[in-house]
Amino acid sequence: MQVMGVVNVTPDSFSDGGRYLDAAAALAHARRLVAEGADWIDVGGESTRPRAEPVPEAEELRRVLPVVEALAADGVAVSIDTRKSEVAGAAVAAGARMVNDVTARLAPVAAATGAAFVAVHMQGDPATMQDEPRYDDVVAEVRDYLVARAEAATAAGVPEVWIDPGIGFGKTLDHNLALLAHLDALVATGYPVLIGTSRKAMLGTLAARAEPGGAGSVPPPADRLEGSLATAVWAQLAGAAMVRVHDVAASRRARDAVEVVAARAA
Ligand code: HH2
Fold first, then answer.
1. In a 10 Å sphere around its CB, with 0-12 CB exposed, 13-18 middle and 19+ buried, how is residue 37 labelled?
2. Distance from CA of residue 214 to its chain's centroid?
3. In this structure, are strands 242-245 and 2-8 parallel, antiparallel, or unpaired?
4. Which residue is closest in CA terms to ligand 1's atom 21?
5. Higher pLDDT residue, 19 or 92?
6. CA distance linking residue 38 with residue 22, whole number of Å
7. How does residue 18 score in pLDDT terms, banded at 50, 70 and 90?
8. Which of 33, 43, 48, 191 gets mutated to test ligand 1 (max ligand atoms within 8 A of its CB)?
9. Active site residue 200
10. How far is the CA of 196 from the centre of ligand 1 (A)?
11. Mutual orientation of helices 248-265 and 225-238 as an angle, nearest 10°?
């Protein structure tokens, strides 16, 4: 399983907003994640957290392009996390090799440029997605949607298509847990599966519940490492091909430890 390190060049991302807004700080952080063992760096210039403010295209380009360009020049495998085709296209021209799109609509950019493409499932959009998410059968609906997007992307000429159930994107805790519990349904599609649980709200809720008496306080995003690692290892054991994480060193060590045991079991 590969590890993708998150670099948010944003003022408002839910866990690290504002820390790497300046290109030099973002680049230094990305290089640290590479040194810690990240296989990919996912660069984003617009938060997709619930109720995030949309970012104008010129501003998003200004945030991400210098970071993408410098990392690509280092030989780093860079993914661009965007919902805008112009940003995806410019980032690939600057050296990004993967388009990570939570709207699952940017396959044409990947097809035209030869980049890999991640189709992510999201119900609604970030402005409203957590208001009242509903599914009859969340696992089947997410799987069928992702397979349809992946087939369309392949038919359009995308050379490498990934699928991602979009943990927290228009999903309740129960929906997220059902998707994690049945990751095998996504793995069985044959498309490589990417999972992003790192520091997300569901882990804060679970951590609070796990305190004695079930009445703990919700830890802030940076204090959700245990849940992030546990769910990354869960995804690894279920056959996920990559996890998208903020804490690369710890995730990579956990991944490696599982691989050592798995090799012994083989
Ligand atoms: N989650 C976030 C952003 N991009 N991309 C994929 N493929 N899968 C995910 O689960 C995913 C994603 C949200 O996390 P983060 O980037 O840390 O926060 P924000 O959107 O607030 O910048």
1. middle
2. 29
3. parallel
4. 13
5. 92
6. 21
7. confident
8. 48
9. yes
10. 7
11. 40
pLDDT digits (tens, 9 = 90+) for 64-86: 999 999 999 999 999 999 999 99
The residues, any chain, with a CB within 8 Å of residue 143's CB and separated by 6 or more, are 185, 186, 189
Mode of pairing for the β-strands spanning 161-164 and 194-195? unpaired
Strands 116-120 and 161-164: parallel
Ligand 1: lining residues by beta carbon, under 6 Å: 6, 8, 10, 13-15, 44, 47-49, 81, 100, 102, 118, 120, 164, 166-167, 194, 196, 244
pLDDT at residue 126, as a whole number: 82
Ligand 1 nearest-atom number relative to CA 162: 7
Asked whether 22 and 57 are in contact (CB, 8 A), the reply is: no
Percent of the chain having pLDDT more than 70?
Answer: 100
Ligand 1 mutation target, pool 3, 49, 202, most atoms within 8 A of CB: 49
pLDDT over threshold 80, residue 55: yes
Tracing tokens 């280092």 back to the chain, one arrives at: 74
Please answer whether residues 5 and 44 qualify as being in contact, where contact means their C-beta atoms are separated by less than 8 angstroms. Answer: no
User: Measuring CA to CA, how many Å separate 202 from each of 19, 175, 178?
Assistant: 23, 10, 12
215 confidence band (pLDDT: 50, 70, 90): confident
